[in-house]
Amino acid sequence: MDLKTFQYFVAVYEYQSFSKAAAHLGITQPTLSRQMQELEKQTGHPLLVRSKKAITLTKEGMIFLKRAQEILQISDQLKHELSPATPLSGDLHLSFVENGQSAPLMQAIYRFQKKYPQVRMHLRKQRETDLMQACVLGLCDLGVIHGHSDDPLLSRSPLTKADTLGIIISKSHPLSDKVALTNINIKGQDLYIPEDLSDAYLQKHKLFATIRGTYLGLSEILPLVQDNTLILSYEHLLEENFYTPYTFKKLIPEMTLPLSLIYKKGSESLLLQTFMTYLKEDL
What we know:
- By secondary structure, the chain is α/β, with parallel strands linked by helices.
- It folds into 3 domains: 3-79, Arc Repressor Mutant, subunit A, CATH 1.10.10; 88-160 and 259-282, Periplasmic binding protein-like II (D-Maltodextrin-Binding Protein, domain 2); 162-256, D-Maltodextrin-Binding Protein, domain 2.
- Helix content is 37%, strand content 28%.
- The protein contains 9 helices and 11 strands.
- Strands 3, 4, 5, 6, 7, 8, 9, 10 and 11 form a 9-stranded mixed beta sheet that branches. The chain has a two-stranded antiparallel sheet with strand order 1-2.
- Strand 8 (190-194), helix 7 and strand 9 form a beta-alpha-beta unit.
- The longest helix is centred in the first third of the chain and has 23 residues, at 59-81.
- The chain starts with a helix and ends with a helix.
- The mean pLDDT is 87.
């Protein structure tokens, strides 16, 4: 079992097809198929579910995939770190929870890639729990989360900017004329809140509205904003204009959430450290 085997397996997972994966890898389909059969013999477990529609993974296959991705990422990082004389290059995996700081975040990425065009960025929005696990497993180089992480395997670096929470409300709602909303204003209203808000935070900032559920992405839940249904969201997240049927209102007293960078302890490569410097300049 070598690095090439891990690369082959990940390619089969990504393309869900032996023929497409083989074309990507530059080898023949029979060769790839034999390699996967040999891998399953070595592990002693079936890793792939073969069907006419697509190739999927077994439970053991999912476990093997996580480790294969981690090993390949560590291999890439090691190659980069052993070549300090070369310009910054390679792949950087950045994950982030939904937040209201997309504009400065993307600006930092733009400035960084303009300076270091040989660095490829892989961006992903994730749930906070999934993001932290990905960092621990080495599948994510850097994460942007709200608050902090108590995981002993992760390092945390606080950011200057914080997210401000507020209410997204229909422009036809009687409360839409108000500059800001109080807890009394939203009492008795149905409210959806971000999935990643902790119980401790909600205990500290008790809301008089009736919490009807949680959501991960704002765009998917916006159609629910009507009549007495409101959404607790982050400022700057809603793209608001004259034609938008919704509007964002700040809360009084103000509700804020600090932002932090997290990464696996011992993974502070030159590439990661340089990118973090750019992020902290904008965030």
